[in-house]
């Protein structure tokens, strides 16, 4: 059973669960999970964990992300994307009145820290039931706004026709941001309505889609593209090198004496290997407080050896 992080370039038309199912077949293990769902219409970077490395996925969900998208201004839909039914369209005069200056003002208003109301057909749970299931059942769903950060909203191209304005953009945002909602809110602010027609995730934290494997390549044997838990943790967190005795202590739930280490959480406790068949090993993610290290998540050696 392999262990590590797998970056997959998800094609359009598949759910995130579909990708997980294919990865399970390709890797020969049921222990595969993902961090950060992509809608079927979206493409791009999906981060998967295999084996004991699935314990790291919780820490990947909250990473910031980059998307490339196309927004169509001039019509609103039930789902805030192209898969929904059109509920309103703007007339030609209203669309023509949206100048580049107005467009820029609308985008600037949606940049920085903003309050965003997620799409009603999101996977957010309302009283234990997914919002999109309630919408499909005919319920009217209005989700509460949440604070998100749009650190960059860069326009790449603008195409105009009499009945629409298409905007290609690159967006850097915090976890929990709905790009569909940005398209909806931009169109609403401009008085013409808007929805998403294309979405591609190109980055999750330090991981880039350029390093991702296609499903075809994975099926042909992409196991070697797995990044080890130690490599992933070292990219995400402060790393602390521990010796074999400290590794054993952490494995037994003991506290480590770390008088010189500043307070931090999580810290990746890594035991250095000798290379080859003995690579670096992630022992645990720990919390350091007042010179003492306590295990948050352990990565037992017997599990990692069984996975190799």
From TrEMBL:
| Catalysed reactions, semicolon-separated | uridine(55) in tRNA = pseudouridine(55) in tRNA
Its EC number(s)? 5.4.99.25
Q: Which Pfam families match?
A: TruB_C_2, TruB_N
This protein's UniProt keywords:
Isomerase, tRNA processing
- Ranges for domain Pseudouridine synthase II N-terminal: 24-179
Q: Which InterPro entries does the record match to this protein?
A: PsdUridine_synth_cat_dom_sf, PsdUridine_synth_N, tRNA_psdUridine_synth_TruB, TruB_C
Q: Does the keyword tRNA processing apply?
A: yes
EC primary class: isomerase
Specify the tRNA pseudouridylate synthase B C-terminal domain's residue ranges: 180-220
Task: From the record, give the transmembrane residue ranges.
Answer: none
Residues in the active site?
39
Record-level Gene Ontology MF annotations: tRNA pseudouridine(55) synthase activity
Sequence similarity = Belongs to the pseudouridine synthase TruB family. Type 1 subfamily.
Protein function? Responsible for synthesis of pseudouridine from uracil-55 in the psi GC loop of transfer RNAs.
Q: Which NCBIfam families match?
A: TruB
Spell out the protein name for this chain: tRNA pseudouridine synthase B
Tell me the name of the encoding gene.
truB
């Amino acid at each position: 059973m392999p262990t590590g992080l797998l970056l997959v370039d998800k094609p359009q038309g598949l759910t995130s669960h579909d990708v997980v199912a294919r990865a399970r077949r390709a890797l020969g293990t049921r222990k595969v999970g993902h961090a950060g769902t992509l809608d079927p219409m979206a493409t791009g970077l999906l981060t998967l964990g295999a084996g004991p490395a699935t314990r790291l996925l919780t820490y990947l969900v909250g990473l910031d992300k980059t998307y490339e998208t196309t927004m169509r201004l001039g019509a609103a839909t039930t789902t805030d994307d192209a898969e929904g039914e059109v509920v309103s369209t703007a007339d030609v005069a209203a669309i023509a009145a949206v100048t580049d200056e107005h467009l820029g003002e609308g985008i600037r208003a949606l940049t920085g820290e903003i309050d965003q109301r997620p799409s009603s057909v999101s996977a957010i749970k309302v009283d234990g039931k997914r919002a999109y299931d309630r919408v499909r059942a005919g319920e009217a769903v209005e989700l509460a706004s949440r604070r998100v950060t749009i650190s960059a909203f860069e326009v790449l191209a603008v195409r105009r026709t009499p009945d629409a304005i298409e905007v290609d953009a690159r967006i850097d945002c915090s976890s929990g941001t709905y790009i569909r909602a940005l398209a909806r809110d931009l169109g609403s602010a401009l008085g013409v309505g808007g929805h998403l027609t294309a979405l591609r995730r190109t980055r999750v934290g330090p991981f880039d889609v350029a390093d991702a494997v296609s499903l075809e390549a994975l099926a042909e044997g992409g196991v070697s593209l797995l990044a080890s838990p130690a490599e992933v943790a070292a990219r995400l967190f402060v790393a602390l090198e521990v010796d074999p005795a400290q590794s054993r202590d952490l494995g037994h739930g003991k506290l480590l004496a770390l008088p010189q280490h500043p307070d931090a959480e999580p810290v990746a406790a890594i035991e250095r290997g000798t290379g080859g068949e003995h690579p670096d090993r992630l022992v645990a993610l720990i919390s350091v407080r007042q010179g003492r290290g306590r295990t948050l998540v352990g990565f037992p050696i017997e599990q990692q050896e069984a996975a190799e």
